């Protein structure tokens, strides 16, 4: 269904708010207003957004490189911010196929213009709702071979999705052995007061938001093989220091600086393989 005429300009959308956090220009005033309220509760939310982007780049490089994955399904894509996932993957594997999924028509408009991949590979976009995983799978099968491994990315998504465990299980069940689940998720473990206030901002504008503790996030990976270092703060996944996010000076210990970032980046990240 073409929903390109339904831009919901009078209600905030999580993808457009995320664009505001990243310093983008593809949002409405209602998104900026809601995002500013979040930033009052979580002053470092822009740092967290940058950490999410850096994590997906690291994870994608691992999958396209060492793991040899050649297919990617990115749900909750958001408004394109270079480098996009397909650019990272196709730099290492030009024949990689990437399918993006989001439910915001603004994302669709940008996807048509900006998400152009290599001639050897394929880059596609599906407009669909994450709460309807079967519809996503049906559409994605037009572009991806589900008998071969797929890297499934759910970045900063599931805390905005009702029924997140069931949605994730449906998606993972459809994947072949050797596929990967890549995820980040909001948590209140590091800053419970700030995150609780943030949740109220989202819910007050009709947006579902449900942070989870580490043990609850780990449940998403039941039956999968977690890669080292497991479920960890986003900026810590296979990166002692996050370039451009964590300031380092000669007198600072990198690990101590990383620890100091935990409260600023209220989320966990993990990558797991389907056996």
Our measurement of the CA-to-CA distance between the termini, rounded to an integer number of angstroms, reads: 35 Å
CATH architecture: 3-Layer(aba) Sandwich
Shape verdict: globular
CATH top-level class: Alpha Beta
Largest sheet: 8 strands, mixed
Number of DSSP strands?
8
Q: Provide the residue-averaged pLDDT.
A: 86
The percent range for strand residues is: 5-15%
How helix-rich are the residues, as a percent range? 25-40%
Number of helices: 10
Per CATH, the superfamily is Vaccinia Virus protein VP39
Q: Unreliable stretches, pLDDT < 50, 5 or more residues?
A: 1-6, 242-252
Decide which structural class fits the backbone.
Answer: alpha/beta
Q: Would you summarize the structure shown here?
A:
By secondary structure, the chain is of the alpha/beta class. It is 37% helix and 14% strand.
What does this structure look like?
With 275 residues, the protein is an alpha/beta fold. The protein has a single domain, classed as Rossmann fold, CATH 3.40.50.150. It is 37% helix and 14% strand. The protein is built from 10 helices and 8 strands. The protein has helices at 14-21, 29-41, 45-64, 85-92, 105-114, 133-140, 164-173, 192-204, 214-218, 254-260, and strands at residues 71-75, 97-102, 122-127, 151-154, 180-186, 225-226, 232-233, 267-273. Strands 1, 2, 3, 4, 5, 6, 7 and 8 form an 8-stranded mixed sheet that branches. Helix 4 (85-92) links the parallel strand 1 (71-75) and strand 2 (97-102). Helix 2 (29-41) runs antiparallel to helix 8 (192-204).
């Amino acid at each position: 269904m073409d929903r390109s005429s339904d831009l919901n300009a009078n209600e905030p959308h999580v993808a457009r708010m995320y664009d505001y956090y990243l310093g983008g220009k593809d949002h409405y005033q209602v998104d900026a207003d809601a995002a500013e309220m979040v930033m009052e509760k979580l002053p470092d939310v822009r740092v967290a957004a940058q950490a999410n982007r850096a994590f997906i780049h690291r994870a994608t490089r691992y999958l396209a490189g060492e793991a040899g994955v050649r297919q990617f399904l990115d749900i909750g894509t958001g408004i394109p911010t270079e480098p996009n996932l397909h650019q990272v993957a196709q730099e290492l594997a030009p024949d990689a196929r990437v399918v993006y999924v989001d439910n915001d028509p603004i994302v669709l408009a940008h996807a048509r213009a900006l998400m152009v991949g290599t001639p050897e590979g394929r880059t596609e976009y599906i407009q669909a709702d994450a709460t309807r995983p079967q519809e996503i799978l049906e559409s994605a099968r037009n572009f991806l071979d589900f008998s071969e491994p797929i890297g499934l990315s759910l970045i900063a998504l599931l805390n905005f999705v009702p029924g997140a465990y069931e949605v994730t299980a449906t998606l993972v069940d459809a994947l072949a052995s050797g596929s990967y689940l890549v995820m980040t998720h909001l948590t209140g473990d590091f800053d419970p007061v700030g995150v609780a206030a943030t949740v109220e901002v989202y819910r007050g504008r009709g947006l579902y938001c449900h942070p989870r503790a580490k043990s609850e996030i780990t449940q998403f990976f039941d039956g999968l093989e977690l890669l080292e270092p497991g479920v960890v703060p986003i900026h810590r996944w296979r990166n002692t220091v996050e370039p451009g996010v964590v300031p380092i000076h000669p007198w600072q210990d990198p690990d101590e600086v990383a620890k100091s970032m935990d409260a600023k980046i209220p989320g966990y990240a993990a990558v797991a393989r389907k056996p």
